[in-house]
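Minutes, methods subgroup
Present: GH (chair), OT, SY

1. OT presented the first of two proteins processed in the latest run. Sequence and structure tokens recorded below as shown on screen.
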Amino acid sequence: MPVIRVEMFKGRTPEQKRAMVREVTDAFVRTAGGRPEAVHVIITDVEKSDWAIAGTLASDL
């Protein structure tokens, strides 16, 4: 069972998440093979204050 982890800033709607997991699943099956039923996508929503880019909190950018 492939597991795909997506970490992203909070704020996406359930509709956006549904569309994203559908596209990620389709892309995996198309490029790596397998069955969509076997692909698991785990979304982790992260606060901007818990994410840093180049030594700066994303909330400060």
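2. SY then presented the second protein from the same run.
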Amino acid sequence: MTDLYQSQRAMRNMRKAAMQRGVVALLDIGTSKIACLVLRFDGADTLRDAEGIGSLAGQSGFRVIGAATTRSRGVRFGEIDAMAETERAIRTAVQAAQKMANTRVDHVIACFAGAQPRSYGLAGDVEVLGGQVDEQDVARVLASCDLPPIGQGREVLHAHPVNFALDHRSGLGDPRGHVGQRLAVDMHLLTVDESVIQNLIYCIRRCDLELAGVASSAYVSGLSSLVEDELELGSACIDMGGGATGVSIYMKKHMIFADAVRLGGDNVTRDIAAGLQVPMAVAERIKTFHGGVVATGMDDREMIELSGSSGDWEKDRRQVSRAELIGIMRPRVEEILEDVRALLDAAGFDHLPSQQIVLTGGASQIPGLDGLAARILGHNVRLGRPLRVQGLPQAATGSSFSSVVGLALFAAHPQDEWWDFETPAERLGARSLRRAFRWFRENW
């Protein structure tokens, strides 16, 4: 645990150094595409938002000067599967973005969707030593949290203080400077499969780049896709990617739960390829141009040319109705949404004051998906795309870019995490597990 603490602090310092140098690259390593943005920072001193611990900042301090995407290779379920292929794809994306930005980049901040994330809610409390809360008291209360036994081969990816209470006053964003006797904290801990992170670090180093930060796609997608009220009152962001669907829940501008379903848009494409007996590339094109999940009477009459290239003239000139295509796509989309529903139920999403759900990610663009999702998830559902970052190239404003745009916000205005404070390392023991969300019901 102490090694992790040190490595996260080292990445934080690297991020600051890269920002002072003025340029950093962002990488979204997805199953279907790898996206890269190059950011130029206008002044590192303007970047930290002074609103409080972990508060979300508005757009300021950076410009997007380069952007590129390439087809992903060697990634499955949002995790690196074939190292050499992923390395080539990352190099292609970074070089294209560097060329557009007309500058060289040494440091990257990356996000990924897989690695079997698990959420924990932690709680801790301490006596305030001087009567007024200072940085040391915050560090001590974070160190006092009972750490869950996260298991072998797991690593902490995010550790956010999400709520402070001083004596009988709960809901404090930043307790520093407040007068009181007893300080308590609720913290959200997100753990992932350690080998996935190690593979990511190794792959990025093979590309002659330094990793200056790493984040969960589910987390950063929420940062870019949810509006202020949704972040404040309690909302879920469903990031539907190619190989995995990330679920994050926000409350009081903090992520309080994250998980992922190992299914995505690529599964729908594979079903079409198998059902219609066409190559994956043809299935992807048919899904993009003709796909949907709600059939009407018109769809029986709308015929789709399969135009394959197998060499068999009869087979290549086949036609299918759009209704038949929808019949193949809908069961898989329903399965993904049912799995998402199970995660939201397990997280206690029904206890939030507002229950807005925002669908984002490339696979969320299937026509009719929002209506089907509203029926299966039983809440207000809207389609989301990246907000809060002006000046994006037109190609990077769609919902499939929510993760990489959220990563820009994460890079420029990181929410405070446990390793940002001088926490006494010997206090970080593994003691008892606090059920995720128990503190949420008690405090809000």
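Chair's summary of item 2: The radius of gyration is 23 Å.
Next meeting: continue with the remaining queue.
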